[in-house]
Amino acid sequence: MSASERAIELLTAAAEAAHDKKAENVLAFDVSEQLAITDAFLVASASNDRQVRAIVDAVEEKLRVDFDAKPVRREGAREGRWVLLDYLEIVIHVQHDEERSFYSLERLWRDCPIIKLPSAVPGTGSASGPAE
């Protein structure tokens, strides 16, 4: 089973919103084969706490306005180092560069297919792992 059409739509919109706020290294993984709790992960990073928060705010607004979607869980927003937004179909991780490097989610999920994002979101598809 692969990520649902809705999950792909949410991921794409979230990736575009993150990119608009200068998110770096935006990657999407289809984790539906590995996890029963979600279809896909979106991972993005920023160089400072303020930018992490701005990316999270932009993603939440885009998904709320365009899809009437609200996260069922939001963690880490106060610190601005690693914010997790859980939309059930997708989970979005926005990390400070240091956390991104240390926790290396790309390495953890490298066996999962990468979901290709629009070419308007540069930096996609650069993780090692199978391409979709």
TrEMBL record:
InterPro entries: Iojap/RsfS/C7orf30, NT_sf. Keywords: Cytoplasm, Repressor, Translation regulation. It comes from the Bacteria. Pfam families: RsfS. Interacts with ribosomal protein uL14 (rplN). Functions as a ribosomal silencing factor. Interacts with ribosomal protein uL14 (rplN), blocking formation of intersubunit bridge B8. Prevents association of the 30S and 50S ribosomal subunits and the formation of functional ribosomes, thus repressing translation. HAMAP family: Iojap_RsfS (MF_01477). This is Ribosomal silencing factor RsfS. It comes from Kribbella yunnanensis. The lineage of its organism: Bacteria, Bacillati, Actinomycetota, Actinomycetes, Propionibacteriales.
